[in-house]
Predict the 3D structure of the following.
Amino acid sequence: MTALALLFDGVSVVYPRAERAALDDVTVEAPAGRVTAVVGPNGSGKSSLVRALLGRVPLARGRVLVDGKDARAMLPRERAQLVAELPQREEPAFPLPVRDYVALGRLPHGARWGGPTAGDRAAVERARADAGVEEFADRMTDALSGGEWQRVRLARALAQEAGALVLDEPTTFLDVAHEMALFELADRAAREGRAVLLVSHTLNLVARFAAHVVLLHRGRVAASGPPDAVMDGATLERVYEWPLVVTRDPAVGAPALVPLRGRRRAP
Amino acid sequence: MPRARWLAGLAALLAAALLGVFVGAVPLAPGAVWDAVRGAGDATTLTIVRELRLPRVPLGAFVGAGTALSGGALQGALRNALAEPYLLGVSGGAAVGAVLTFAAGVSDPVLVPLGAFVGAGTASALVLAIARAGGGRADPRLLLMAGVVVGAFANAAVMVVLADATPDQVRNALWWMMGSVADAGWRQVGALACYAALAGGALLRWGRDLDALALGEEPAAALGVDVDRAGPRVFVAASMLAAASVAAAGLVGFVGLVAPRLARALGVRAHRQLLGAAALFGATLVIGADVAARVVRAPSELPLGAVTALVGVPFFLWRLARAR
C-alpha cells in the first residue's frame, strides 16, 4: 500500500433526461492520512460523486484524479489496485462463505489464471482481523446481521490493500455500537496512511471523526472545511430545509446538530 | 468441492460413457462390443458400435457440457439462478431457424443445424440489441426481459410456419425440437468440440469476472471489472456455445438450469470451479439421458429433450423443497 490522494476537480455530472446537474463544479480533495467526509441531504449528489470515481456516470466537466492520474483513463483493474470502494448497496446473487467473499478483495491483484499467492492469503487474513470478522469466517453471507454484513464488506475493501478507501454510507441500518466501530475502523485506516473518503448521513459522528467536511446541496458545494466551520446552524438549516440548532456536545465538545420539531422550510 | 467429489463426478461420467457404448436398442454382448470398438467383428456389429453408438457419447457429452457451462455463466453474469440460454432466446431462435429450413423442404444433416445456429445467433443478437436500446448498457433485468420477449415471438413464428407446412415437415420439425443425438457423426462431434473449446475456454477465463459480476454492477466495478464489456461478452460467448449445442442436437432442455444448480448445491461457489463442475454434470446427465432414451421403449427412442426434463424437474423440485 502506497500513500496517495484522491481529487475530484470541478466535477459536473448530468444524467440523461435530468432537469438539473447531479453534480455542478464540485471539488473535493481527500489527501493521504486523513478522513475526509462528504455530507448532505438525500439527493444532494453524494453517491454520484462515488459513481464518478468508478466511471459509472457520464462526466460533463472536470476530472477525477487518483494519485495525480486521471481515474477515467485508467484500466478499471488498475484503479481498483489504488482505490478500494464500498458502494452503498450490494446484494450477492448467490450467498458465499465469508472467507471466500473477503478474498474477492484480491481480485484486482490476481492473475487471470492461478490461485491466491501467499501474499494474497496474508492480506485477506489481515483484513479479516482488522475488520473483526474472524469469528464468522465460515458463515454464509446471507446469514449475517446488518452489522456483521457491513463489517464483512469493509473487510473485503481492506483486503484490496489500496492506498485510498471510499465508503458510501457504510453505517446505514447499524446500531450505535456497530456504527462507532465502523467509524473507528475508518479512522484507523486513515492513521495508517490511507486517504479515506467517507460519504455519510450521520453529521454528528462525521464531525468527530473527519478532519475535513464537504457539505453538498443540490449538486453544489455549500460549505467545505474543518467540521467546526461547516457545522454552522444557518448553513445547515438552509441545506436541510428543516429548523435546527448547532450546539456543542457536552461530553466531548464536538459540534452537534440538533433538529427541532417543526415543519419543512421552503428553500 | 473436495477432490473426492470431483473424482466421483468423473467416475459417473465414465460410467455413463461406457453405458452409452455398451447399451443400446439392439442387445449386444459386451465382448462383441469391445471387439467392435477395436475394429474386429462382423459388419453389422461394427456399424452399430462404431457409427451409431460411439459418436453419440462424445456428442452428448459436448451438448451437455456446453449447455451447462452456458447456463452457469449466464446465471452469474445476470445475477439470476433462473437464467439459462433457453430463457434468453437461444432455443426460440434455433427453433425458428430449423423449422424454416424444414419448411423450405430441406432436411439435410448439414443445413438444418446451420439454420438452427443462424436462428439462435440472430435471436441472441436481437436480445442484446433490445437490452442495449432499453438501457444504454447491458442491464441484467433488461436482458432477461428481452430474452423472454424474443422467445415468445419465436414461438409464435414457429406456429405460423408450421400451420402451413406438410405433415412430413411438421413431423421433422417436431422431432428436431424434441432433441436427439441419434444422428451423431464424427464431423458434428469435431465441430462442437471446437466451439466448446473456444467459447468454454473464454468463459472459464472470465471466471473471476463472473465472481465479481454476481455481486452486482457497482461492486464489480469497484473490484476492477470492466462491467460494460465483461457482461455482454459473457452473454455472447455463452449464447454461441448454447447455439452450437442446439444446432447439433436440437432442444435439450433443463440441462443449463439443473447442472449449475447441482454444482451450487454441492457447495461449489467460485465460478471457474462452478463452470467446470456444471460441465461435468451436464455431460453426464445428457449421456445418461440418451442411454435411457434408447432402452426404455426400445426399439423406438424417447425424445432426449423430454428425458432430460423428466430427470431435471424432480431434481429441481427437490432442491426447492430443501431451500425452504
In short: The first strand of chain A starts at residue 6 and ends at 13. The domain at 6-259 of chain A is CATH 3.40.50.300 (Rossmann fold).
